[in-house]
UniProtKB/TrEMBL annotation:
It comes from Lonchura striata (white-rumped munia). The keyword Membrane applies. Keywords: Glycoprotein, Ion channel, Ion transport, Membrane, Potassium, Potassium channel, Potassium transport, Transmembrane, Transmembrane helix, Transport, Voltage-gated channel. Residues 93-145 form the PAC domain. GO terms for molecular function: voltage-gated potassium channel activity. It comes from the Eukaryota. This is Potassium voltage-gated channel subfamily H member 8. GO terms for cellular component: monoatomic ion channel complex; plasma membrane. The chain crosses the membrane at residues 212-237, 257-276, 315-333, 354-377, 449-473. CDD domains: PAS.
């Protein structure tokens, strides 16, 4: 049974992981396509980068990953060459460089370019992070001036002190960068001892779910849904029949379907349990694996209906508990499950045989329901003992025709249940299809009113069911018709232009091969 799978895992969660790693999309980073050698165009930029550089996202997209649009007069050309070299060789780059915003103002940036590989080890993306270190540079410069002012050193000492300060600045930046990276690692992995790469691979991630969660698109769930569908049709057939033709509580425990009814109720109870552990597709198209969300979703949708339909009425009869026979009708609430099937008919449109079978089954099921109602109307007419109508009802006429009349106040005798059901089903089918022969006819007022309703419903069902059947059959033959039309056009072209037999055969074979490849 085809179902909507949704945006399910396994899926590529690379961008979500990167956004989480950088504390959200307001961090300063861009992603570039490493497989386009000409410029390595930018394919994504964060909101933080747009705020830092002053450019709109539309102005940044598809520009070079080397960020030439951020270069200015005081940008170190040596650093520019190193950036381009690292991009060409697809290696990591770290360095401090002066960039310029859109408004022309400069800022010092700690640039970190990391190549991202896929599961095959090929570099597919470049991740470039930008950290504004202008304030840090200003502080270090101020400290340098302050130390030079208060401490006079010789040339060698001055050189040593300058080198020491530069080393301290580098250690300051690196330590701050590493602390931020470790902080993000802790947030994602919750374990500093796990040996994982600093950046995730650009690949399909595996589904992370509990082993007790059942996938709604799994093979087992598809087979189970078909089993529940058959059980639902069984309830749709047996419940109205038992209420109409059996109907007596003292005979309920002697029904031949008691065991199968209990088995179906057990199936429905198991189905409720499975639905509490089955994934579903949210409105956003994501597959939900969380057990709590699954329970809330099921309780707020189909749980009440499924629970009422799964009540073990047959076990109550087994314990000789007196229950009104019409309580069986509560199990027909389970028929609302068929609404799920109707909502998914568009997904079955490519499976013409399945749609055709379901439509014909629904038509036959409606005829069965109306046959049960037709029998109840005839039975009530007999039980009323109305001197004006008791001997003209359809059941009385049927009993006389098959030589099984009613006697003793219409409580004994009469046609068998089998004969009465067949006659009722014959009448409803002939009425729904508008081909009634009149040998089973409506005589009393109640029977005539029901016949009118049957004719109206039959007209609607005839248009709905057989209209869809016509469309399905036409769609089934449309490809066949198109193929023969194209073949005829090709043969006409060959005949008009008097093409040789060998070329004609080659053209026909080419057309047949091309058609088979495109239409499979």
């Amino acid at each position: 049974m085809p179902v909507m799978k949704g945006l399910l895992a396994p899926q590529n969660t690379f961008l979500d992981t990167i956004a989480t790693r950088f504390d959200g999309t307001h961090s300063n980073f861009i992603l570039a396509n490493a497989q386009v050698a000409k410029g390595f165009p930018i394919v994504y930029c964060s909101d933080g980068f747009c705020e830092l550089a002053g450019f709109a996202r539309t102005e940044v997209m598809q520009k070079s990953c080397s960020c030439k649009f951020l270069l200015g007069a005081e940008t170190n050309e040596q650093m520019i060459l190193q950036i381009e070299k690292s991009l060409e060789e697809k290696i990591e780059f770290k360095g401090e460089i002066m960039f310029y915003k859109k408004n022309g103002s400069s800022f010092w940036c700690l640039l970190d370019i990391v190549p991202i590989k896929n599961e095959k080890g090929d570099v597919v993306l470049f991740l470039a992070s930008f950290k504004d270190i202008t304030d840090t540079k200003v502080k270090i410069a101020a400290e340098d001036k302050k130390e030079e002012k208060w401490k006079g050193r010789g040339r060698a000492g001055s050189h040593f002190e300058s080198a020491r300060r530069r080393s301290r600045a580098v250690l300051y930046h690196i330590s701050g960068h590493l602390q931020r990276r470790e902080k993000n690692k802790l947030k994602i992995n919750n374990n500093v001892f796990v040996d994982k790469p600093a950046f995730p691979e650009y690949k399909v991630s595996d589904a992370k779910k509990s082993k007790f969660i059942l996938l709604h698109f799994s093979t087992f769930k598809a087979g189970w849904d078909w089993l529940i569908l058959l059980a639902t049709f069984y309830v749709a057939v047996t419940v109205p029949y038992n209420v109409s033709f059996i109907g007596h509580d003292e005979l309920s425990t002697t029904r031949s379907t008691t065991v199968s009814d209990i088995a179906v109720e057990i199936l429905f109870i198991i189905d409720i349990i499975l639905n509490f552990r089955t994934t579903y597709v949210s409105k956003s198209g994501q597959v939900i694996f969380e057990a709590r969300s699954i329970c809330i979703h099921y309780v707020t949708t189909w749980f009440i209906i499924d629970l009422i339909a799964a009540l073990p009425f047959d076990l109550l009869y087994a314990f000789n508990v007196t229950v009104v026979s019409l309580v069986h009708l509560l199990k027909t609430v389970r028929l609302l499950r068929l609404l799920r099937l109707l909502q998914k008919l568009d997904r079955y449109s490519q499976h013409s045989t399945i749609v055709l079978t379901l439509l014909m089954s629904m038509f036959a099921l409606l005829a069965h329901w109306m046959a049960c109602i037709w029998y109840v109307i005839g039975k009530r007419e007999m039980e009323q003992n109305n001197p004006l109508t008791w001997d003209i009802g359809w059941l009385h006429e049927l009993g006389k025709r098959i030589e099984s009349p009613y006697y003793e106040n219409n409580t004994l005798g009469g046609p068998s249940i089998r004969s009465a059901y067949i006659a009722a089903l014959y009448f409803t089918l002939s009425s729904l299809t508008s081909v009634g022969f009149g040998n089973v006819s409506a005589n009393t007022d109640a029977e005539k009113i029901f016949s009118i309703c049957t004719m109206l419903i039959g007209a609607l069902m005839h248009a709905l069911v057989f209209g869809n059947v016509t469309a399905i059959i036409q769609r089934m033959y449309s490809r066949w018709s198109l193929y023969h039309t194209r073949t005829k056009d090709l043969k006409d072209f060959i005949r008009v232009h008097h093409l040789p037999q060998q070329l004609k055969q080659r053209m026909l074979e080419y057309f047949q091969t091309t058609w088979s490849v495109k239409e499979i």
